[in-house]
Amino acid sequence: xxxxxxxxxxxxxxxxxxxxxxxxxxxxxxxxxxxxxxxxxxxxxxxxxxxxxxxxxxxxxxxxxxxxxxxxxxxxxxxxxxxxxxxxxxxxxxxxxxxxxxxxxxxxxxxxxxxxxxxxxxxxxxxxxxxxxxxxxx
Length: 138
Known about the structure:
The protein is mainly β. It has a single domain, classed as Lipocalin. It is 12% helix and 46% strand. It has one helix spanning 3-18; strands spanning 27-30, 36-42, 45-52, 80-88, 93-101, 106-115, 119-126, 129-137. The chain has an eight-stranded antiparallel barrel with strand order 1-2-3-4-5-6-7-8. The termini are far apart.
């Protein structure tokens, strides 16, 4: 094998190592609203549940803003708030998910666009409004 072929194989192999894989999203994250979530996989889709409140909304522990009055006494800790994310191997993104925001009692569309060493980038949208946020890895 000549040096040029070895160099090409090295770069192809190393660039493959940086490509995002489906399960790279699994882990624990600190959100800007002070919640900590753990993302896990069930039947090929990714979900996230609240694992710590960290003084969320001045000590709120129940789902007070839930539009379903019967769920307003539900505890936030352990609540699944991220549902149905699916990895798109061509785009290297997690799409078609939803996220419940307990601070407003609303459900948003969710996708994860990038995973880095210490953080992930997410995009939440509702109707024509969207917002990009960074979640810190724990």
